[in-house]
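$ run holo --ligand "pyridoxal-5'-phosphate" --emit tokens
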Amino acid sequence: MTAIKSQLSHPYHYPDEFGHFGPYGGRFVAETLMAPIDELTTAYAQCITDPAFIAEFDDELRNYVGRPSPLYYAKRWSERLGGAKIYLKREDLNHTGAHKINNTVGQALLARRMGKKRVIAETGAGQHGVATATVAARYGMECVVYMGEEDIHRQAMNVFRMKLLGATVVPVTAGSKTLKDALNEAMRDWVTNVDSTFYIIGTVAGPHPYPAMVRDFQAIIGREARDQVLAQEGRLPDALVACVGGGSNAIGLFYPFIEDTSVQLYGVEAAGLGIATGQHAATLCAGKSGVLHGNRTYLIEDQDGQIIPTHSISAGLDYPGVGPEHAWLKDTGRANYVAISDDEALAAFHDLTRTEGIIPALESSHALAYATKLAPTMRKNQLLVVNLSGRGDKDIHTVAEREGITL
Amino acid sequence: MSRINTRFTELGKTGRKALIPYVTAGDPDPQLTVPLLHALVEAGANILEIGVPFSDPMAEGPVIQRAMERALAQKVTLSQVLTMVRTFRQKDMTTPIVLMGYLNPIEVMGYPEFATAASQAGVDGVLIVDMPPEEATALLSETHKYQLDMIFLVSPTTTDHRIQRIAAACGGFVYYVSLKGITGAANLDTELVQRRVRHIKSMVSLPVGVGFGIADAASAQAVSQVADAVVVGSALVKQIEANQHDAVAMTQAVTRLIKGMRTAMDTPMAASRVAGV
Ligand SMILES: Cc1ncc(COP(=O)(O)O)c(C=O)c1O
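-- output --
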């Protein structure tokens, strides 16, 4: 964890003290939340430089989450694609099956330090909800998870997992009944229970300090990957690929490589049924700037500034916003953002499962699908790292249903 | 002097407090909004607060969320809200109008475009729930050009340091959010509110209005003992919702509520209750 410190004092100095990444980010919240956000900012700044906190976080990541996660050379898959050597960063092997737990462990430890006994979260696919319910059980905290009614139907298994872990799952019936509405409802809970409650946001969105804080907790992914690729190959990779919903697994992988300008960064969004159909969640590829959920960023919105419902086969990418740092990395050209359709992601899902014996999450399958396009354009001695952000067990019902199979 | 300042000065001369009803523009029907605004003034409103519908109203309780959904179902846009204000101004040139909403529709319209259009339509104040003064510099420089008052919120969690900073950016009046929570919450402690408002008034020279959770004549009366203005939102929108299919009944219901509050606010409180304050 000492690396977090050195990352924070790096010359890449975003965000500024007000949480701005260029024009993006910031704190666009109701006045009642300004005091708790200030309190959080101060507490976070103290923890991140406190060796005891860092040691505790490190220890939890090693012994509870199961880190470091392997950087796995997907030899058969690389050879089939006939281009770059592809490495998979195996976040699917973490406890609870995705990268989300890195962040919930960090925030729950912070909540405990701040004396908060109740944590709340929003969830789409249920992965962040499960990761929050898990750490709440681990640290003995009350846990309430807000989830869109639509998503509760799509992700019944994760709802049950959260309940087993002792969390209360509150269905959200407002608006489009999906992730964005769950986030609204969690904000309403927070503003009502500011004294007792810590809001564990699941991605690099929300008001400052969340985008920076969640990035810092997820940056363990990129720090490990950087060390591992140097150990295994003796050089930096040529490109990194990660899916982007809110963007936490992607920034977690990218951030420790940001100043290695030889490393190309690719964030992969959900093109759903195709960007031209309007049924997608490709915020950076097809959206424009606006303000939602506490920060300025790219949004999927209409010409009057109303947020438009999104579509993706993967609930975890089905979000009309994106972390403000990604908006800035796009505008500055440091990272490239591309989009992959439902069908392309499904094809990659099957492809990896059959070739490598790894069932990927549908979210991660978007990154894999882009790798199948990118790798063949690269030379055989080039290195490509794909973030396998989660495992696909949660998605087998969705895949079966798409293929007309009843389980 | 802005219409808002003028109104507070006039009221101050007779020792009366401002009653500020909130309605969401276009709820339940865009055709009904302007007549409803006139009816509110008729019933005793001194300033009008008009909600601009937004798809993700994070600070709103269920009542105003549903009002925004009704308005959005009829595709009410920020431009149309400004048209409603312009229409209202054809018959009423004196009642101040405050727009209340979320930042994104204004971002998308553009700050200079919004400030020009709002001032031309006859808007006097703008209150953006999700924009604290720290993020408001660019918009303030536009609204200043047109003498639009930017109204900011102060909440139970706001520190004294921030109260001063907010007051410095604020025009028209300071809006005290009377409770930790969302609009329409039912847990208002009027004594606590009175203490906080006295404290805020000791620090700022602008009038102080109080909103969130004022549901009836009694709470309006209690709060108006110390505040300069009382905002009533969800309680009013509830009446609109209950009568959404009958415009006549709706006008009667909102008139009854506002008149009741007006009367209570203009009646001195019983000595025993004031003593408890
Ligand atoms: C496995 C997995 N990958 C990716 C995501 C997308 O989130 P983010 O873009 O924040 O990494 C999710 C969200 O639920 C997820 O479960």
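-- notes --
Residues 247-266 of chain B form the longest helix (20 residues).
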